[in-house]
């Protein structure tokens, strides 16, 4: 899902790059306010720039450019929606980190043939002063909007365990899992009596997989029977309408007759097999003690406390007692510091790295994460088949992506309707021009 959104983002910023030479011109020549959105304004230079981008995009796609007034209204609507989102960005204080921003700008730089940010900046500022800064700010806004959308829209998407289970039973779910089926495919065609012959073929398939013999036996009197042993194939390689018929079958069963334009089709499921690749992961049975800085505990005091606890553990004191007494993680403290079996990717990177490097039965040295100071023990390790859990996670991701666009559209409509918008130019106000 994130990938889909970023794909649109980079397309938009590449378009901005193509038009970067005009950005300063618009800003200098026309600066009157055309609309007010909450606490911000949209300038005529912003509108002119967006119109130019829309025209550029339509021309690149070889699509007709609509009448000027409609184009202006469409461009203004886009800017209002964008500004309403930026108001939300400010409200929730969402900012891209410098690393992510540099990576995003570097992608646009690479698209333009520049191999470094410095070369890219020189290239743009040679067109017009501050062009690089303007584009970088726009990319930062796009990244912040994208993060806002992920947070807000994903919180609206609800996927139940039953939704996941139902999806995994569909052809799309089976195909996504990499499951394969061995299918026999028979087509009966002719001028007349093909329904009767098709029923006979279906009955024969129940008792035999010898499709060549079945073809020979039932091809007669203007009726042609043609069969194919499709072997093992991923369900994604089978036409969706046929895959939907095969998925619910038990091994050895045939489909009902499938009338289509070129005759009647019958399929038999000979065998099925799941994806051969298993998700075997190392798990660590882990317990920890956390000391968090707070209003009454300074970062230095938190470090001193964890060092004291570490020394007591090294001296032989019981980990469970110290965790229950001192740990600021209430969930694990109630269970003697236990986090249970921990899989890779669940904990923050600093915690995971220390967990993996700590021998079973040993206590780690104190270390810091975003949550505070920790010591941990790994009491056991095991190799666990997480295939089913990973399949469920993948199904939730696919179902979430399916719902994302519709939920995004609904959310955008809500923030647009809730925003205070005043359009200064009556010619641009859709309500006044209906």
Automatic annotation (TrEMBL):
GO BP terms: namely:
Gram-negative-bacterium-type cell outer membrane assembly; protein folding; protein stabilization
Repeat among keywords? yes
Q: Which PROSITE patterns match?
A: PPIC_PPIASE_2
What this protein is reported to do is described as:
Chaperone involved in the correct folding and assembly of outer membrane proteins. Recognizes specific patterns of aromatic residues and the orientation of their side chains, which are found more frequently in integral outer membrane proteins. May act in both early periplasmic and late outer membrane-associated steps of protein maturation.
Catalyses which reaction(s): [protein]-peptidylproline (omega=180) = [protein]-peptidylproline (omega=0)
Q: At the top level of its lineage, which domain of life is listed?
A: Bacteria
- The chain positions of domain PpiC read 178-271, 281-380
Q: Name one GO molecular function term.
A: unfolded protein binding
Q: What is its EC number?
A: 5.2.1.8
Record's Gene3D superfamilies? 3.10.50.40, Porin chaperone SurA, peptide-binding domain (1.10.4030.10)
Q: What is this protein called?
A: Chaperone SurA
SUPFAM superfamilies per UniProt: FKBP-like (SSF54534), Triger factor/SurA peptide-binding domain-like (SSF109998)
Where does it live in the cell?
Periplasm
> Taxonomic lineage of this organism?
Bacteria, Pseudomonadati, Pseudomonadota, Gammaproteobacteria, Moraxellales
Where would one find the signal peptide in this protein?
Answer: 1-27
Q: What's the record's remark on domains? A: The PPIase activity resides only in the second parvulin domain. The N-terminal region and the C-terminal tail are necessary and sufficient for the chaperone activity of SurA. The PPIase activity is dispensable for SurA to function as a chaperone. The N-terminal region and the C-terminal tail are also required for porin recognition.
Which keywords does this chain's UniProt record carry?
A: Chaperone, Isomerase, Periplasm, Repeat, Rotamase, Signal
Q: Which GO terms describe its cellular component?
A: outer membrane-bounded periplasmic space
């Amino acid at each position: 899902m994130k990938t889909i959104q970023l794909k649109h983002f980079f397309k938009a910023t590449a378009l901005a790059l193509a038009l970067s030479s005009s950005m300063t011109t618009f800003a200098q020549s026309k600066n009157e306010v055309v609309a007010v959105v909450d606490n911000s304004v949209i300038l005529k230079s912003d509108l002119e720039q967006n119109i130019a981008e829309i025209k550029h995009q339509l021309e690149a796609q070889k699509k007709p450019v609509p009448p000027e007034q409609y184009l202006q209204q469409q461009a203004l609507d886009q800017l209002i929606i964008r500004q309403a989102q930026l108001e939300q960005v400010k409200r929730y204080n969402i900012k891209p980190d410098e690393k992510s921003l540099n990576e995003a700008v570097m992608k646009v730089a690479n698209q333009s043939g520049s191999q470094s940010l410095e070369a890219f900046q020189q290239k743009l500022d040679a067109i017009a002063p501050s062009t690089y800064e303007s584009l970088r700010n726009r990319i930062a806004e796009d990244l912040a909007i994208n993060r806002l959308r992920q947070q807000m829209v994903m919180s609206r998407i609800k996927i139940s365990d039953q939704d996941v289970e139902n999806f995994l039973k569909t052809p799309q779910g089976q195909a996504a899992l990499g499951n394969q089926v061995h299918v026999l495919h028979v087509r009966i065609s002719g001028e007349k009596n093909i329904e009767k012959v098709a029923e006979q073929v279906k009955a024969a398939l129940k008792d035999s997989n010898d499709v060549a013999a079945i073809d020979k036996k039932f091809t007669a009197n203007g009726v042609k029977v043609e069969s194919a042993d499709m072997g093992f194939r991923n369900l994604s390689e089978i036409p969706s309408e046929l895959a939907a018929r095969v998925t619910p079958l038990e091994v050895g069963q045939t489909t009902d007759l499938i009338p289509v334009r070129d005759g009647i089709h019958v399929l038999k499921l000979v065998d099925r097999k799941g994806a051969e690749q298993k998700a075997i992961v190392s798990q660590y049975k882990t317990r920890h003690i956390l000391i968090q800085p707070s209003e009454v505990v300074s970062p230095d005091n938190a470090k001193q406390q964890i060092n004291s606890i570490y020394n007591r553990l090294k001296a032989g004191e019981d980990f469970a007692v110290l965790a229950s007494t001192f740990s600021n993680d209430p969930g694990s403290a109630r269970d003697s510091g236990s986090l249970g079996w921990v899989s890779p990717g669940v904990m923050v990177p600093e915690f995971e790295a220390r967990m993996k490097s700590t021998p079973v039965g040993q206590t780690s040295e104190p270390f810091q994460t975003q949550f505070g100071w920790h010591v941990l023990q790994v009491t056991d390790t095991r190799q666990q088949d997480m295939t089913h859990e990973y399949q469920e996670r993948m199904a939730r991701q696919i179902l979430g992506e399916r719902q994302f666009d519709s939920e995004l559209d609904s959310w955008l409509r809500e923030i647009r309707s809730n925003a205070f918008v005043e359009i200064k130019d009556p010619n641009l106000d859709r309500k006044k021009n209906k």
